[in-house]
Design brief:
It contains seven helices and five strands; from the N terminus they run ααβαβαβαβαβα. By secondary structure, the protein is an alpha/beta fold. The chain has a single domain, classed as Ribonuclease Inhibitor (Leucine-rich repeat, LRR (right-handed beta-alpha superhelix), Alpha-Beta Horseshoe), CATH 3.80.10.10. It holds the Pfam family LRR_6. Keywords: Repeat.
Length: 170
Amino acid sequence: KIEPQIRKINEIPYTNPRLTQLITNNINRTTVDFRSKNLNDQDMKLVAKELLQVNKTLTRLDLYTNQIGDSGAQYLGEALKTNKSLTLLQLQTNQIGDSGAQYLTDALKVNKTLTQLLLYTNKIGDSGAQYLADGLKVNKTLTYLHLAQNQIGDSGAKHLADALTLNKVS
């Protein structure tokens, strides 16, 4: 009879009261600093839904040195597709890999406000670099992309270099 109890626990929606309070305290700010808060992928669902989609004046979001992986990048990417205020997103020193880079790239293809994206010290490899390169070919607003200390090799670097020759940021 333990099984029904486990099912009930799994049906409980994810909450993080500490993060919810942080979001509430920062809901109208232009800069939000959530660095080194030990935030995870599920927390990014809250950040995307409760901050990025609600705060219409947010221009800078610092999420570096957390535990954000590909799923967290997916939540952020979905929110970035409709966000019209964020210009700087700091995601360095997290756990974002190739899939996460793809989710962020999908957002870059339609986002018209983000100018700086910091992704250094993550787990992005050649495939992730290729996804980002594809996004750079169509994005006209991003002027700064920091990818140092990832797992990008010669192939990924070539894709990025080729994309930069085609990119015409206006």
